[in-house]
Amino acid sequence: MNASGHADTAYFDPIEMRDLVVDIAGDFARARAMVLAETWAVARAGGRSRFTLPRLEAYEVMALEPR
């Protein structure tokens, strides 16, 4: 979730975020962004998986495919 538009009890349009690097523990083969409807290969090293989310508007739902 992109909380950049949240200010106390007010809500404004969030600022679009770009090129967010996601680094998570686990061994995953692919990451799928449901809102963007895109799938990416995941880089793995040291028991961690990493991918870059090219754009985040208000929210995104990610599905990670285990290896």
Describe this structure in words.
This protein is mainly beta and 67 residues long. It has one domain (16-66). The protein contains no helices and 8 strands. It has a 3-stranded antiparallel beta sheet with strand order 3-7-6, with no helix packed on it. A 3-stranded antiparallel beta sheet has the order 5-4-8, with no helix packed on it. Strand 4 and strand 5 (38-41) form a beta hairpin. The two termini are 26 Å apart. The mean pLDDT is 92.
Helix share bin: under 10%
Q: What gap, in angstroms, lies between the N and C termini? A: 26 Å
How many β-strand stretches?
8
Give the count of helical stretches.
Answer: 0
Beta content comes to over 45%
Rg is 14 Å
Envelope shape: elongated
Q: Strand order across the biggest sheet?
A: 3-7-6
Task: Output the keywords.
three-stranded antiparallel sheet, 67 residues, mainly beta, 60% strand
